[in-house]
Amino acid sequence: MPSIGLMGGTFDPIHLGHLVAADAARHALGLERVIFVPAGQPPHKAGRDITPAEHRFAMTLLATLDHPAFEVSRAELDRPAPSYTIDTLRQFRAAHPDADLWFITGADAILEILTWREPQELLAHARFVAATRPGYPLRRLQAVQEALGPASRERIRILEVPALAIASRDLRERVRTGRPIRYLVPREVEAYIHKMGLYRESAAAGGAAPAVRP
Ligand code: ATP
Ligand code: MG
User: Regarding the domain with residue range 3-165, which homologous superfamily does it belong to in the CATH classification?
Assistant: First the structure.
């Protein structure tokens, strides 16, 4: 039975916290592949300007290039917005009916699962693994699981990962104010951000798509 991990996120930008959580889950669960799924227009982030999807996709590709088990999916980018995780899980479940599917999140995301569309259905399509994340204690998880029903207990697993207090929001702010992001994101992602002028004060939501123009 193929075992597949799906790592959803806005990845604006992708950082070492995402990569460490994904690789820890791959190792702990014996996953053959971890597929990163950058969100199109995430419903819960509608309030702020999200960097154009093609930039976030390109950074996710660059960040995962050297890991043989990591892949990047365009599933949510090629679907009309907004992107709901339940639609993504249905799509992957249909494509891999026999797979052991795991959806990888951080502690903050799992605590919000009740606000996602069709939370019970989500757990029916995949098991969830919640990576620990500094600043988001998981003691509220029990209450969340009670609200989801008894079956959810076996469907959500907590995974202790090396603590990395890195957040995309902080990285965007660092770039905007000229502070370093080195060692917080892969070198290639740092280079891409600077080359494309992402997250600068003047950058209008990240500027143009990454295509090279004459
Ligand atoms: P933002 O600050 O814009 O919300 P973020 O750093 O939280 O960005 P997301 O793209 O929102 O990144 O997160 C994608 C997934 O990765 C979520 O499930 C989130 O919980 C998890 N995650 C993000 N950063 C970490 C981290 N440092 N440690 C563990 N999990 C993380
Ligand atoms: Mg987040």
Answer: HUPs (3.40.50.620)
